[in-house]
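Predict structure. Chain length: 489.
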Amino acid sequence: MKTIIDTNFQPLKIENLEECIKYSLLPAKFENKNIFVVIKENLIDALNLYNKLSLPYEIVITDKDSFNRLNQKLLELKTQNELQNTSIEDEIIEDLSLDQFLKNGLDILEENSAPIIKFVNSLFYQAIQKNASDVHIETHENFGLIRFRIDGVLVTQATIDKNIINLVINRIKVISNLDISEKRMPQDGRCQIKVIDKNIDIRVSIIPTYFGEKVVMRLLMESNKIPSLEALGFNQEIIKGFRSLLEHSYGMILVTGPTGSGKSTTLHAFLQIISTPEKNIITIEDPVEYKNNNINQIQINPKINLTFANALKSVLRQDPDVIMVGEIRDKETASTAIQAALTGHLMLSTLHTNNAAATISRLMDMGIEPFLLSSSIIGILSQRLVRILCDCKEIDYNDYSEYGISTPISKAKGCKKCNFTGYNKRKAIGELFIMDDEIKALIAKKSNDIELKQAMIKKGMTTLKENLITMLKNHETSINEAIRVGLRD
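Prediction complete.
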C-alpha cells in the first residue's frame, strides 16, 4: 500500500461501482494499472469491501482533493449515460405531474436511488411536453419550488420538500459535470439528453442564494424543421421587406430583441430563403439549434478559445458568401462583422436591444465608428414574441382609449386546452427598418435614439407598439400580454 498525492486519477468502470463509491473504495487507472484509491479517514470501510470483492488491484492512499476529484468523475461515469442512452419516457408515466409523482410515496430521499433519477427525468420530460424554454429550481427557507417558463412566462409546477430539492440539484450537477461539493460559488455547465427521439442541449446555471442554491436550465432542442417567416407570424409588409433585404449581395442585417424573443429562429428562416447550392453559407452559433444540410454550422466553445470573434476571423478565410453570427457580444466581434459586411459578404447577426433605433446607439457604445455603421448596416429588425389568446377568451369592456383603442378587446379566461393560462402558442411581431441616405446622415451626426426612431417612423416604419395595438383590436391578445411585451415602452 503506497501513497500518491495531488494526482488526477482516471476513473475505472467496474461491476460493483455503486458499492465502491458508497464505501470510499474508488477504482481507477493509474500509469496503465488498475488500482483502488482510498483516503485514511475511510480506510477501514474501504478495506472491508476490498476483502469481499477479491479483485487483485493495488490499494493507493491519496489526499482529499485527489480523492474528491476521482469520486466526482466516477459519479459522472455512473450517471451521465443514463439520460443519453435511454429514452426518458420509458422510465416515467406520461400523464403523471410532478406533484403527483411526489405523492406516490416513493422513497425519494436518497440521492442515488431510482426515484430521484426518475423524478429528474420526469422534470425534463414534462418540460419538453409543455414546450418550456427554461426550468427554474429554487430553494426557499422551508421548501423548494420548480417553475417552467412557458410562452415567455414562469408557471409554477411543483412545491416540494427542501431535502428533495437539494437532491434534485445534486443530480443535475452530476449529469452536467459540475462539482456537487461546491455550494458557495456560481457554476455553469451543460449536458445533452434525449427525449422522445429529440436531442436536447441543456445549459445549466447555478447560483448560491440565501437559503440554498438556485438552478436555471435553458432547454435548446435540435430541430430539422425550420419554420418559415409566414409560420413565425410576421405580417406580409415585414416579410416583403425581409425579402428585399436578402437580395443584397453584401451588408449587415441585424435582428434585435430580448432573450427568448426568437431572434435565432428568424435568422434561420432568413437562411432558408437564400440557401442555394451556388452559395457558401457559414454560421457561428451557441449552440447549434437547427440542423441544416445546406449550410456549414460552427458550434463555439469558449473553453478552447473558439469564441464568436475568433471563429469569425477563420470563417472569413473560407470564401463565404453569407455569414451568420449568433450574437454580437463585444467590440471585437462587432468590428470583424462590420468589416466582413463592407468587403462583399452578407452578414446576419443578433443584438440585445429594445428597438431598432437603440441598435445604432448600442454599437456606438461598443466603440464602433458611426461612418462604419452607416456604410455597413442595410436593415434592422426588432422583434418580440406575443402570446395568442386561447379560444376560451372573453370580451374585455374596459376603457383603453389611452392606447387609441375605442372598441372592446378580448382578455384571457383559461381552460384545460390552454392549461388554464388563457393563452395558446405565440406569434412574432416586429419593427423593420431598411436603411436609406437620410438615416445614414443622422447616424454620421451621432443622433440619439429618439431622433433616429422619429426619422424611421416618418419613413413608414410600423413600430412594435402599433403592432401590439393591431393585435388587441383583432382580439388576438390581451392588454396584460401587450403591456408585458412592451405596449408602454
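Summary: The chain has a mean pLDDT of 86.
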